[in-house]
Specification:
This protein is an all-alpha fold. 74% of the residues lie in helices and 0% in strands. It has one domain. Helix 1 runs parallel beside helix 4 and helix 2 packs across helix 4.
Length: 96
């Protein structure tokens, strides 16, 4: 997920494995926390549909498994979202 060329496919793959229950949360709880806590470094580098679905799923799982950490997790995901979202760039591309 840290490379732009494979980010979308990796996010879809990880989300589908988590959503289908192929991986249990207790097996990857530390990794989920690392992805959320350090989303700028270890999270998806692109803001695309699959990355959004993955981050929302990770946030939901994190909140249900560790309710006390929900505020901090939400803040990390929101910071990741706004670090990747640049709506002004779309206008620049459309003018060209």
């Amino acid at each position: 997920m840290t490379f732009p060329g494979t980010c979308r496919a990796a996010a879809v793959h990880l989300h589908s494995m988590l959503a289908r229950g192929l991986i249990q949360y207790h097996d990857i709880g530390e990794d989920v926390n690392a992805i959320i806590a350090a989303a700028d470094i270890s999270g998806p580098v692109l803001l695309c549909d699959s990355a959004m679905f993955l981050m929302m799923h990770l946030l939901h799982v994190n909140i249900t498994e560790a309710p006390g950490a929900s505020l901090v997790a939400c803040q990390h995901v929101i910071r990741w979202l706004f670090a990747r979202w640049h709506p002004g760039l779309w206008r620049a591309f459309k003018k060209k």
